[in-house]
Structures are given as C-alpha cells and as structure tokens.
Write a structure and sequence with these properties.
The protein has 203 residues and is an all-beta fold. Helix content is 0%, strand content 41%. It is built from no helices and 20 strands. The radius of gyration is 16 Å and the shape is globular.
C-alpha cells in the first residue's frame, strides 16, 4: 500500500488532529513505549511512520518497534523518527527483521540487534540519531550473520556502526555509505579479520 499509517503520540496534532483535547501540541520522544511484537508474532510495516515512542532505557531493549522472542517483522518504505531510546530494537532468541527502503532518524539509536537475524538493504537511510546508527551484538549467536547492503549510516552522534561480534557471526556488508558520524564510522570489540565487507565507503 502507498497510503501511510502513522503511529505516534496522541499529543502530535499533525496526525489525526487534537485527539487529546489539549490545544496545539506536537509530541515528544518517549511519549509512549512503542510497538512490541513477541513470542513468534509477526508484523509487516509498509509505508508506516512510527514517531515519539521508544520510552525506556538501553538501546538494545527499547524502540519505537521492539521485536522479542522469535518474533518476525518486515519493514519497507517506512519512517522511524523522534523515538527516545531507539528506532527499532531486535532483541534475542532468533528474532528476525528485514528492513528496506526505510529511514531511521532523530532517534536515540537507529537500529539495534542482539542475537537475532537482521537484514538491512535497498537504500535504507540511518542518519542523525543521537547514539549509534546501527548497533549489533551477536556475541552469543549461532544463526545467520547480519547482512547490510546498499544502505547509509550518516551523521549519527556516536558510531555509524557498532559491532559486538565474534568470528562465527561476522556481518556481511557491501555497498554501504558510512560517513560523518560523531566518534567513529566503525567501532568493534573484536578483530574483524575474515569479514565479508567490500565496496563500502567509510568516510
């Protein structure tokens, strides 16, 4: 569908009008917790806008969208913006997210994934988040390695890409643009020798 669906704070009057009856207001990051899909649930976000959620603490645990415990989601042509802790948190136990043609901006972190199957592709743009653009922790993961292709991670406040991985889960990354991030373009806790990452621009 090309008709956008907005999921946001009831204080955000530009979507649905003055639904809380308080006069003109615009909403703030963390006004609501976010969408949670868990226990093998599934979600399909196509032309969605998720805004002003992500209440909580810890970039790997909370976001405008949280996936946990074997949940699966596809995200296509969607916008996650102004969420307090993060845009999307993909968190553990073989959770799966496939993200394409989407934007993650002005969140705490853009996208985070812990011990999960993550695919980011096809012109996904992760920019101007206050922490990491992309955080991946696969230190206890034995499934498929993350795949990041044809996307950009720019002008985020800390790291463009922050990897906590070991040699068995080295991500695959090609044709990405990682540039202008506040601290480092790439931060890693492990040696990435043998990783499959060619044709990326690292600023």
């Amino acid at each position: 569908s090309t008709n956008e669906v907005t999921l946001t704070s009831y204080a955000y009057d530009r979507a649905g009008g003055d639904t809380n009856g308080d006069g003109s207001s615009s909403g703030s990051p963390g006004d609501w917790y976010g969408i949670v899909i868990l226990d093998s649930g599934t979600g399909d976000f196509d032309h969605a806008i998720v805004r002003y959620g992500g209440y909580g603490e810890g970039i790997s645990s909370y976001g405008g969208l949280q996936l946990q415990n074997y949940a699966e989601a596809t995200i296509d042509h969607s916008l996650f913006t102004d969420n307090e802790v993060g845009g999307v948190a993909v968190n553990g136990n073989a959770t799966t997210a496939t993200i394409q043609h989407s934007e993650f901006s002005y969140n705490g972190a853009g996208i985070s994934s812990v011990n999960s199957t993550l695919t980011i592709e096809n012109n996904t743009n992760v920019h101007d988040n206050s922490e990491d653009g992309l955080f991946i922790n696969e230190s206890d993961w034995t499934g498929a390695a993350p795949s990041i292709t044809h996307s950009s991670f720019e002008d985020n406040g800390r790291y463009g890409v922050n990897l906590w991985v070991d040699s068995s889960t080295l991500p695959v990354g090609h044709y990405n643009n990682i540039d202008g991030n506040g601290s480092l373009q790439l931060n890693t806790l492990e040696n990435l020798t043998g990783s499959d990452g060619t044709d990326n621009y690292w600023g």
